[in-house]
Design a protein that fits this description.
The complex is a heterodimer of chains A (about 240) and B (about 150). With about 240 residues, chain A is of the alpha+beta class. Chain A is built from 9 helices and 4 strands. Chain A has a 4-stranded antiparallel sheet, covered by helices on one side. The longest helix of chain B has 21 residues. The chains are: A alpha+beta (about 240), B alpha+beta (about 150).
């Protein structure tokens, strides 16, 4: 048997619900919404169908029932749009992830360009200091830390170079798109907790030449943060080892 | 509101009972009409997951209350094959293959807290909670009730 067209089933479902409100009919609305999402029927179409179906239901109703029928039809519409809400939240999460990824790629590229600067190899202390500071600032922003410290010690007898970046964790992408589900949950759990990661700068010969440390006071670093930090530490160690005799 | 509500999930029709219980509890806890709908939707998604992927299971619901918030906790359990990779199962479109964000990832996005415990060949438990802030008036009434 061929299923009835979507519009017809929506109207039948709405009519059944407004004259006999029960969970079974609301479930029908939810299923219709789910089906609409899967069939690429958009929200505007649902609202137009709803409006037309409501008008026809009201024509068949007693005038004294109008208010309660309109109210009930709102519940049916709300239920049919719930699946769209799920999809909308998923899209927001996906946009947020894409925005964040683009920003990370841009910052890593920028950092990579600085680290490959030839002046680092020449052992220019000012240039090294600037680089170490820049790494600290980039690390802090990329992993959303409140504080980042990068320390580089070359050979014995030469003082360490330290870069420190501090500031409140400002999550630009959350400001633009709102926090994602996982991050919101992690941040709720982590309020009042302090999380610290310290990672050594090690040359390709296995010598320790410094460390990078990040501290967050209101969140726990995610696996993505840890991965990013590892990547930056490797890039930094690779660049700075050129200054190690 | 202290008692747990149990709904057995064994067939598609049981979704209606689970949704009705979730909506009634949400309304009793003062959740808005919109939030009650979102809770009923999340319950539908996990109940549907049980019916489609396992066949049978159970959904328990309970009211939570602390100084600042009311909550509705939903716990869905089954003794099915378990989920081999939970992070994959939470990716959009894993089960539906449509990438639309329905199913488990959809339920997770509608609730404030969501966690899955699963063991291969032993079963799966999904816990999810929706919270709402208590307003000042509710807190004062509560204090008066306790005092009297």
């Amino acid at each position: 048997m061929t299923p009835l067209p979507f519009a017809r089933r929506y109207e039948d479902g709405l009519r059944t619900f407004v004259f006999d409100r029960n969970e079974r009919s609301l479930r029908t609305a939810y299923e219709l919404g789910r089906e609409a999402v899967q069939a690429d029927i958009n929200v505007l179409t649902i609202v137009a169908l709803h409006n037309a179906a409501l008008v026809r239901s009201l024509q068949a109703a007693d005038s004294s029932d109008v208010l309660s029928l309109v109210e009930a039809s709102g519940d049916f519409l709300l239920e049919s749009l719930a699946a769209f809400e799920m999809v909308q939240r998923g899209l927001t999460d996906a946009r947020r992830a894409a925005f964040r990824e683009r920003r990370i790629v841009r910052m890593l590229r920028q950092l990579s360009a600085v680290l490959s600067d030839v002046s680092l190899a020449a052992g220019d202390r000012d240039s090294l200091r600037e680089t170490v500071q820049l790494v600290a600032e980039h690390v802090r922003e990329l992993v959303r830390a409140d504080r980042a410290v990068v320390t580089f010690a070359t050979t014995a007898g030469r003082p360490e170079i330290t870069g420190v970046a501090e500031g409140e964790d400002v999550d630009t992408w959350s400001e633009v798109l709102g926090a994602g589900v996982e991050e919101m949950a992690a941040e709720q759990d982590a309020v009042q907790q302090i999380d610290t990661i310290r990672s050594e700068l090690v040359t390709s010969r296995g010598e320790k030449i410094g460390f990078v440390e990040v501290v967050a006071s209101k969140r726990i670093f995610s696996e993505d943060d840890r991965g990013l930090l590892t990547q930056i530490v490797q890039m930094t160690a690779g660049a700075l080892q050129r200054d190690v005799p | 509101m202290d008692d747990q509500i149990h709904v057995r999930i064994g067939c598609d029709d049981d979704l209606v009972a689970a949704r009705a219980e979730a909506r009634t509890l949400a309304t009793a806890l003062g959740f808005s009409r919109t939030d009650a709908t979102l809770i009923a939707t999340a319950v539908s998604e996990i109940a549907r997951n049980i019916v489609v992927h396992v066949g049978e299971g159970e959904i328990r619901m309970e009211a939570l209350c602390n100084d600042t918030r009311y909550g509705l906790r939903v716990v869905a359990t089954d003794n099915g094959p378990g989920i081999r990779n939970t992070s994959t199962a939470l990716e959009d479109g894993y089960a539906s293959r449509g990438g639309l964000g329905l199913g488990l990832p959809g339920a997770r996005r509608l609730m404030d807290e969501f966690e899955i415990e699963t063991e291969v060949d032993r079963g799966t438990t999904v816990r999810m909670t929706k919270w709402r802030q208590r307003d000042e008036l509710e807190r004062l009434r509560d204090r008066d009730r306790r005092a009297s």
